[in-house]
């Protein structure tokens, strides 16, 4: 499953007609995390290492994809499934969704999911989820920052479409440079971030779609993106 | 506009009678961000650089001002206007206010606003705002941490007065040392922050208003601040 | 009081029958912070230094305890009392609880409480609390991330029991390694955190309770923890 998601992102991310990628599931489980049968002692430490390395690799692929990766959650996201949600660029969920990191109940503390979760939600909420394994509901997830938006179950498709359309209405090249700098600046101290951010803004304005966007605004007409920067 | 705000802060921040500064707007736009006419290709990269450098400069002036700078928002705060709100010490907004970073719709991704926004709100909310350009409302802004407080439109003046009075009832010198250390410690690792914080507390107690505050408490009387530390 | 809490944690944290520690108060004040009579000029800077050093020491003891430390708040948590809540692993509070950092009103800015508070809640909320001294209520505290959960006053005991039971149902050794890595990874950059996290997961699976947890899941039976890792 991890290989498949990763390969699908890699294969499609440079297709100019693909403007964002939505991760969704059939049925009422978004993802319950790792297959615990791969984590038995019989499978051995080498396989365990491979499984967790692959998971990190997938998350890096999501972060470095040139287009937004959106989690569409309609049900349970647990353990590495919760990590996956927290690692997407945007997460939209239905009001029946729940989120948990219950690994400790199965003897394996959600240490790697916790890396993504505590960078998405307040420490007090992350520690509660990790130490108790208890689930939080969709509204708690929104309040905590684990998801971007919650909507009623029957509005989920429309809301995701809304988000995709908002992204698709912009220049692909501008979204790519914006996403790239967003993750770049998060880990910088604020002064370095601004010094670099000023340059990025000036470079953005010098691209063909940067110029077109400003011109279209000044000329009061819709922009015609080249999507090529 | 940026020059004017900056100069007004600099000119008034050392006036002992000024205890905090409120940034507000006439009408229902707090700030829609940069003037896009300054960002056309004709104006040239040098002017673009100057504009963004000035913006960072203004934000540094807000952070280093010895008194609190409060955003009073009653309407739209977009792009660099949203950055300005996120960069104030305190932000109070009315319930009709909205916040967005829609630059990508005009070909210029809100890369510098994103620096302030992602340091104020959860990453999942910041990425949603930046990648879609869609607005969030006042309650979403509060929930996310972009503003300190939301009140009904007709209570906004009173609430801002309330905050200003709370600040004005304290020693100016103590507020100044407190704000200074607050931004100093945020960027330190927690151990260094505590080591330095312990010193700051001891130094604070040794100031004249530190001694007066403790004495007034022990003697069960109102404090008489010198405001001079 | 600080000595007593610290000593009680140290004395009990390695008792295998103790699975978590709950900090609670009698009456409607969880903690109003430092005793200001210890902070008068007469007491002298050396005592002031000792008081704040002890406070940091206590917080380090909470962080490094091998079992979760839970704040059960049913009333006021102010100044260093608010810092104490923000420094626990989990905080559960009743709906009548309030939280504030009003030190500046007594001439002593809550600089050290601010270190814990701004690492728990959005910067905009922390600055509001510190600069105005105004209290926030239980729901605002939850929304901001200062507490993990809010319940009605008459449900507080049950909710804390619920959390304790959730922790006690797991392997003590797994909770210990999970808590330890949680605080370790928070301060790492995300790549280093994942590299280290992958190792921790593999090591966790190789412990006796890691193996037992996975086996019990595969064999569809309740786990029998050794609690010894």
Please tell me how large the radius of gyration of chain A is.
Answer: 19 Å
Q: What count of helical segments of chain A does DSSP give?
A: 10
Largest interface: A-B, 58 and 41 residues
Helix content of chain A: 40-55%
Low-confidence stretches of chain A: none
Class from secondary-structure proportions of chain A: alpha/beta
Which geometry of chain A do the CA atoms define? globular
- Biggest sheet strand order of chain A reads 1-3-5-8
Give the biggest sheet of chain A.
4 strands, parallel
Q: What characteristics describe this protein?
A:
homotrimer, 229 residues, alpha/beta, four-stranded parallel β-sheet, four-stranded mixed β-sheet, 8 strands, 53% helix, globular
How would you summarize the topology of this molecule?
Three copies of one chain form a homotrimer.
Chain A lengths: L1 H11 L8 E3 L5 E3 L12 H21 L4 E5 L2 E3 L1 H8 L2 E5 L3 E3 L10 H8 L4 H10 L3 E2 H7 L4 E3 L4 H13 L3 H15 L3 H17 L1 H11 L11
Parallel strand pairs in A: 1-3, 2-4, 3-5, 4-6, 5-8
Antiparallel strand pairs in A: 6-7
How would you briefly describe this protein structure?
By secondary structure, chain A is an alpha/beta fold. Helix content of chain A is 53%, strand content 12%.
Structure explained in plain terms:
3 copies of one chain form a homotrimer. Chain A is an alpha/beta fold and about 230 residues long. The first copy, chain A, is built from 10 helices and 8 strands. The longest helix of chain A has 21 residues, at about 45-65. Chains B and C meet through helix 6, helix 7, helix 8, helix 9 and helix 10 of B and helix 2, helix 4 and helix 5 of C.
